[in-house]
Amino acid sequence: MKRFFSNALPALFVGACLRLFFALKFPSSSGDTVLYDQLARNWLKFGKLAMDIAGQPTPVDLRMPGYPAFLAVVYAVTGRTGDSARLPVMLAQIFVDLATCLVVAFLAALDLWLHHDERHIQPSQPDHVNSSVAPQQH
């Protein structure tokens, strides 16, 4: 098993398959999906983080702009919004999640490399394996 996971690619492949399985088999949305969708659509359409209030886009500060900005980018790239963009949004989230696993593994390896004289442990690969295949634990 150690030899199989000594490279990040198999772990990323397993993590991608797991995430794709859940995204395709059990797609879901949360209670604030409509809110984020409206913020992203108004950002694209009017150039501001706004909600439709009395038929007018009104700037609001209900949520931080990070996720609406992410949605707006996905909407702009795919040309889809709302429910028709659900799959592209989930695929983009899978990509960002796996890229984050790589960043964490890189930072851990860099820390071990910079401080290898101070520690008497060998760098191990299970960290990126765990974060790739267990998405809820990081």
Structure description:
- The structure is a single chain.
- The chain is mainly alpha-helical.
- It has one domain (4-137).
- The protein is 59% helix and 6% strand.
- The chain contains five helices and two strands; from the N terminus they run ααββααα.
- Strands 1-2 form a two-stranded antiparallel ribbon.
- Strand 1 (50-53) and strand 2 form a beta hairpin.
- Helix 1 packs antiparallel against helix 4 (86-114), helix 1 (8-25) runs parallel beside helix 5 and helix 4 (86-114) runs antiparallel to helix 5 (126-133).
- The longest helix is centred in the last third of the chain and has 29 residues, at 86-114.
- It is elongated, with a radius of gyration of 19 Å.
- The mean pLDDT is 84.
Radius of gyration: 19 Å
Number of strands: 2
Shape: elongated
**How confident overall, as mean pLDDT?**
84
Spatially, the strands of the biggest sheet line up as 1-2
Detail the poorly predicted runs: none
Please write the string of helix (H) and strand (E) elements: HHEEHHH
The number of domains: 1
Distance between the termini: 22 Å
Structural class: mainly alpha
Strand content: 5-15%
Q: Helix tally?
A: 5
Helix fraction, binned, reads: 55-70%
Largest sheet: 2 strands, antiparallel
